[in-house]
Every structure is written in C-alpha cells, then in structure tokens.
Design goal:
Layout: E1 4-5, E2 11-15, H1 29-43, E3 47-53, E4 62-67, H2 79-93, E5 99-102, E6 118-121, H3 128-137, E7 142-145, H4 148-153, E8 159-162, E9 182-185, H5 194-203, E10 208-211, H6 217-227, E11 235-239, H7 243-252, E12 255-258, H8 268-275, E13 280-283, H9 288-291, E14 298-301, H10 307-314, H11 319-329, H12 332-350, E15 355-356
Parallel strand pairs: 1-15, 2-3, 2-5, 3-4, 5-6, 6-7, 7-8, 9-10, 9-12, 10-11, 12-13, 13-14
Length: 375
Amino acid sequence: MPRHWVADPLHIAMVAPPWFSVPPQGYGGVENVCADLVAGLMARGHRITLIGAGDGGTAADTFEATYPVPPSARLGEPLPEVLHTARVAEILDGLDVDLVHDHTLAGPLLARGRLVPTVVTTHGPVTDEPGQYYRALGHTVGLAAISHAQRRSAPELPWLGMVHNALDVSTFPFREDKADELVFLGRLHPDKGVHLAIDAARSVGMPIVVAGKCTEPIERAYYEAEISPRLGSDVTIFGNADATQKRELLARAAALVFPIVWDEPFGLVMIEAMACGTPVVAFGRGAVPEIVVQGVTGVVCDRPEELPAAIRASRLLSALDCRDHVASRFDVATMAAGYEAIYRSALVTRYPARFARPAPRFTPIPVGGPADAVA
C-alpha cells in the first residue's frame, strides 16, 4: 500500500450504531452526530464510507447497510449490536480505507490486528464497567472524548483528544417570541430527572411538554413510578418527537429543563435548544458547565429546590445569545476539524510506516557553515 502525506485527503469508514437510521427520523443523538460529521468531513475533502442500518440519508460517498430496517424496537438487547459488528467486519474486509471511526460499543472489540487505526468516540460513560472495557481494549484503539468532563472522569484511558458534539445550526428554527410553556426532551429515564422537571414547572405555574423515548423496561418502570402519578392538565406527554416536531417544540418553549441526576458526558439536546434561541435550565452535572454559559445561555443550579428560581431567571435571557453561542462553539465545521486532527495524530503516531510527512525541498545550511549541517 502506498505511503500518504499527512495532509492528503483520507478515506474514512464511519461506523454508526445499528439502532436508528442516519440521520434518524426521531430519537437518535449519536446517529445525528454521525450524519453531521459525515457532512463536515466531506466539506473538508475527505471520502466517507458510512456503515449503519436502514437507508443512507447522508451525502456519504458510499453507504453500507448492516440491517435493511434498523432494529429500534430491540434497543437495549445485546444481539443486534453484536450482529451489526460482525457485518461491519465483513464490510470492512472489502474496503481500502485509511482509518475506521467507530461510534458503537461492541465494534472496537474487532480493532485488534487491523492494518489501519481505529478511533472510537465514547458517547456513553467511561467509568466503572465501561471504563474497564476501554482499559481492556488497551491501545488497539484510540479514544475521542465528547467533553472535558468525560475525559477527566477516566484520565488513564488511551485518549487521542476531545471533540464536542455539534450540529448544523441552519437546520434549527430561531424564535425569539416564546410560548408560556417549558419543555423536557430526552429519554424518559431515571437519570434524566423528568419528574423533577415536572415538579419545577408546576412550582412556577407553567405547563410543560414532555417528549421522549419510553420503550426500554427501565424507562417504562420509571414512567409508571414517577411520571404517571404527576400527570395533570399542565403536563403534556408528547411521545417520541421526530426531527421536525423536535425543532418546533424546542423553538417555542420558554426554556428547556434538563435536571440530569448523573454525570452525562454531553447532552445534545442542550445545544439543539440553544440553537433555537431557547435557554437551558440544568443541574451542573457532567458536561453541563462546558455547554451552558451561566446567566447568558441558561441557568445552572445544583438542587431540585433551586429549579423554580432558575426557570424564572432564564426567562430574562437573550434568545440571540443562545443561538450565537451554538453557532460559534458547537458548529459542524469545528467538530470536523477536531476529528481530522485526531485522525492525523492516530495515523502519524501509530502507523508511521504508512503516513509520513513530506521531505523538505531543501536542507537549510546552519549559520556555522556546511560542516555543522546534519546529513
């Protein structure tokens, strides 16, 4: 295989999870990131082979499907992702790529022995058992964190760098005049604190729309135990919003309430809300302090009893400031440039025999004369 100069365009195999199409019709944060990253990398001149499930909905040069229809209803079961990983391996055997960028959990298990590097974006937690898993992989992969908080939680892992998630701001409607309502958007999972969002909305006398996925057993049990008893005329259970509905809900809401009770490594819905000009009210867990500018694009607090005051304060914030913050800090071009830097580092550092820096056109002669030159 020929050597490449370090600045040459790359052929990248982008491996998405199997659960939803890329981009997804509704829920699917990782799939949204994959779709935007494909667009950003192609704008930088790279060739992308996207491997995922369903129909390819991106501008990738090639799309390879592991499932004709994404197995969304089986999210949480292990076998669909294992089968997806096996099919990805078959597809990769027939490709000539410079690098594999894997966004799945099981996929990195097959990175050992590859002739090209594998970069893995850690979209979930990296402590406890997930941390043990990534440590066991060793240096067969290089990891990309999605926030500084995530990387700090396990600094000993083989990190190549950190790149925040991003989005195409132009696809999100900007609205300054907000409805007198709040929104929660995300999985109806105990970690998300949906019941706290409902309690806080009721405390300030504002209706709240609750939109999100509720299909896994833990989500259904949480709904019955904590959400159902709180239902009333001021709580609208919207269900799983598709891409258009999500944007409409976020754009019209006075604030997104995001009372997470775990250290979430990113939280894509926060930048989606701010792109619509909607401030975020959140607990300062995980990456929240990296994403929300306190008192400018949202209000960050620490305890449930502080949420009502935070909601009131958020109504004084500028919608334009929220939008500008995302456009300048979490745009697709910045994300693509960040990942390209990680790819270059992985290629040059780990595979120097294939990727080299071009030789200089001439050898400068030191001030001391030719005798001091390095041969």
